[in-house]
């Protein structure tokens, strides 16, 4: 597989009034072109910091991140980001939101009207792909959370980014809408051939979407374990019930507990019952 993103010795230290926070320590990871990689881990293990660093929104303290062999120096149109909060422009209609980044580039680069025409075709196609053809003229506040997030994804895809960086994009959605979004994003992955880096708290989501699940550990933030997902490229919701899926889910959940310093449920129960006996 061709390497798309090469993370080498990535280190990030934040200096706060309370001291230094080692958000990332010596992270080494290669992500392939057209790979779907998901990141999980206990709160504060540096998932968002790493994603933001790939997006060029955060500078590393040391180490490097390269895309196609070139070091990242800031944000670029080759990398689009989707966050948990939809961040649509409330004063723009759905179609205007989707075309917004393209408009900026058109203005900047003096692209011809034929290009604009092509861009409109792409915006229409993306709107259709997201199942939002009927909502082109609506304002964001007229849409459900799931619909708004679909608009945000369409807007991110508009400039044909090579890399889609997603930070808990479905975290605010209800369980049913999330399932729909999972199948949609797998479909987008197949069609658009982008490299997707996806951060989530939800282990089931991480396994269902990713080809690899990267588990990070906190204090300092680092890569702990990388799991290969034993699922075929074409996925369906039934697979979430397969023994290998459930086994991997259990293994990852246990490891997150261990790395976060939390006791396992069983250990906790044993301790609580011992304490209860001592009190009697
Ligand atoms: N701008 C900042 N200034 C100071 N500390 C920060 C900053 N951003 C992140 N941190 C700290 O860096 C560590 C890693 O944070 P990060 O948000 O990357 O973790 P995370 O794994 O994404 O957490 P969560 O799952 O809770 O979103 C945390 O201890 C966090 O408090």
UniProtKB/TrEMBL annotation:
Keyword field contains ATP-binding: yes
Cited InterPro entries: AAA+_ATPase, ABC_transporter-like_ATP-bd, ABC_transporter-like_CS, ABC_transporter_ATP-bind, P-loop_NTPase
Superkingdom of source: Bacteria
One Gene Ontology term of the molecular function aspect: ATP binding
One Pfam family here: ABC_tran
Keyword Transmembrane helix: no
Boundaries of every ABC transporter domain copy: 5-239
Keywords: ATP-binding, Cell membrane, Membrane, Nucleotide-binding, Transport
UniProt cross-references to CDD domains, sorted A to Z: ABC_NrtD_SsuB_transporters
PANTHER family xrefs: ALIPHATIC SULFONATES IMPORT ATP-BINDING PROTEIN SSUB, TAURINE IMPORT ATP-BINDING PROTEIN-RELATED
Family (UniProt): Belongs to the ABC transporter superfamily.
The protein's name: ABC transporter ATP-binding protein
